[in-house]
Design a protein that fits this description.
The complex is a heterodimer of chains A (about 400) and B (about 375). Chain A is α/β, with parallel strands linked by helices and about 400 residues long. Chain A has eleven helices and 20 strands. Chain A has helices at about 15-25, 60-75, 95-110, 120-125, 150-160, 205-210, 240-250, 260, 295-305, 350-370, 395-400, and strands spanning about 1-5, 5-10, 30, 50, 90, 115-120, 135-140, 145, 165, 170-180, 180-185, 190-195, 195-200, 220-230, 240, 265-270, 275-280, 315-325, 330-335, 340-345. In chain A, the strands form four sheets. In chain A, strands 6-7-5-15-16-17-14-18 form an eight-stranded mixed beta sheet, sandwiched between helices. In chain A, about 55% of the residues are buried. The mean pLDDT of chain A is about 95. Chain B is globular. In chain B, helix 1 (about 15-25) packs parallel to helix 2 (about 60-75) and helix 7 (about 300-315) runs antiparallel to helix 8 (about 325-340). The chains are: A alpha/beta (about 400), B alpha/beta (about 375). The interface of A and B includes residues 296 and 297 of A.
Amino acid sequence: MQTSDVVIIGGGVVGCSIAYHLGKRGIPTHVIEKDDIAMGTSGACDKAVLLQSKNPGIHLELALKSVKMFPELQKSLDTDIEFLNHGCMIVIQNENQWKVMEGFVERQKKLGLDVKLLDKNEARDRQPALSEDILGSTYSPMDCEANPIYLTLGLYRGAKKHGVKFSLGTKVTGIKLEKGRIKSVETDSGEILCKYVVNATGVYAPTIGRMVGLNIPIVPRRGQIIITEPVPKLIHGGLNCARYITAKFRPELLGTDEMAKLGVGLALGQTENGNLLIGGTREFVGFNKTTTHKALKAILKHAASIVPAIKNVHVIRSFAGLRPYTPDGLPILGEVPEVPGFIMAAGHEGDGIALSAITGRIISEVIADGKPSDDLNIDMTKLSLDRFKNVDVNEFRESHNCYSFAS
Amino acid sequence: MKTTEIAIIGAGPAGLSCAVEAAKAGAKVTLLDENLKPGGQLFKQIHKFFGSREHQAGTRGFRIGEQLLKETEELGVEVLLNAAVYGIYENKTLAYVKDGKDHALRAERIVIAAGASENALSFPGCTLPGVMGAGAAQTMINVHRVLPGKKILMVGSGNVGLIVSYQLMQAGAEVKALIEAAPQIGGYGVHAAKIRRAGVPIYVSTTIKEALGTEAVEGVVIHSLDEKWQPIPGTERTLDVDTICLAVGLSPLTELAWMAGCEFTFIPPLGGHVPIHDENMETTLPGIYVAGDITGVEEASSAMEEGRLAGVASAESLGYYDEDTAKRLKDEIWQRLNSLRTGPFGEGRFKAKIKQLQARRQLA
């Protein structure tokens, strides 16, 4: 039988980041991944590493700390993660949005985010492709971008270099406890004795949680994304819209039309090759990963209302990814007291890329030192599974159209 | 949203034959094709077809195309041209772009008859203008009446390579040589003999080393291969050509079937990954059928028979035929299909198709 101090379940960006940090600390670690690296959500998302899209509070604090770690990763990983600090704008299309964003920006500023409001002309000077019909935008020079697949691969290669073992194409079939504590992880190719299990399986976290009797409130939220042919430089840095922020945190404010039902909000970026990535939707449709004609049309229509030039660009591909959504939009991080040795690192929704670095550091410190170091100054109770003790998880799942546990 | 009973994607031999059969049964049929003209590859096939009389042996391909088009018109099949289907979405809804606009079409049955695309070959200089698929060259000469070049090297000795070489000569080009990496000629002896009589050398166990030229093809270096398919140093020779035609096989155009969620199996003699289907040409998704080269690369006659099969079966499933009538019609088609899959060239395809049907039964 194999032995490892830590078994991480999940080879997405979160699992790989934790593996990388544990590897650097020299802690014997083994990652079990059912498919391949970045095969799930980490390989089906956009390239934004955003601060502006984080709720002022612990969410933004985590993101600020995480993004600070990216330049170091870009230097130390063997893989070019295509990290760029090009800033991002959030486009405002009407007075209501302006009022909401004004408040949002003020609260973000207080936490140290460099962000300001631009009027229409300032916004169009910075981003000439913007429509004349916009009202203005926000702008933060601190927002960044990275290639999510290269980032995950870079962390995977870095972890391997530090001695972390990976079993790809391997499925976890059970978790054994001894006197209530983690004893081992059973897989379809053998059992691994361990002291800690890290559940970094994103939307599949509830399935793993069930193996130790936990009912974890995470449901998949589908995001559809469109890729166009390469075009000459059109978009500078990242471009989102106020609807995107609203769809993320307060979807009920969007109204009841088709666009609102699909949770359409703009997330736009351009790759180095020139392809545009146009997102996206936020839909609760269980584990359905298909794209829909209705949503693709709605995304494009909305994108063209902000960047009219998009009307003349050919779409070459589309895909959907499932984001792990929790009742309060924050990830679930840390050891679960009911099951000593069982550590949660899931539920990052659309923030997994941005928060991957800090998550890797926090979880590695929880395992190695018992808690995150004091200089991080993070209130782990706000991220614990325990904060949902009064949530009716089954009701939460069903009200978000999630009726099954995906394997 | 626009609706129809049977939507057929691709108006080549399989799609047209399918449309005729389904419309004959009484179904409302919509045929979509991304090209400006229907007919697929039929209209560039100026050669006479092989096989038996019931397969119109002796008739030239484009005549068969004209006949099928006439029948679809008489039967009232709706034909949407310049309509590129880009997706199959929920509830059998097709999305397509026609004349620059996005449309949706909801169908009760879908037949994917998207055909195949030519394989490419990589070698230094393979992206130079003047390197093209043999099928593309055939379209240029026989449909658009444009000669792609004057001095040709044909790569690949299957029937496409042999026939297109001859047609390029008829169109006024000089075929400098035909090369084949395998130790023997791939296509029919009768086609090969025809171009040998015309003085074209055929070099077997030979491949391209590189294409020469800066702005376009100005020549090509070929070399011989040993029994392990490795180049033999010192056998290089340079040919003075301005065009290199690649006839190195076809791959089924399976994207729409993948996207719809059909299950696939891997059968190299059929061109690689092919959708699994049953005796009715129905895929693993109820109501979604396939016909023609997408199910495995064969030739136009079997594509037409598969199209007919899908046409009868999809019409039957909508209630336009009773079981007995449908069975009689399908049995007749299967007999003809099986007779097409005989002989030294058909035998391999016959076995491969059996394997494909077995894959379906194993799933059931």
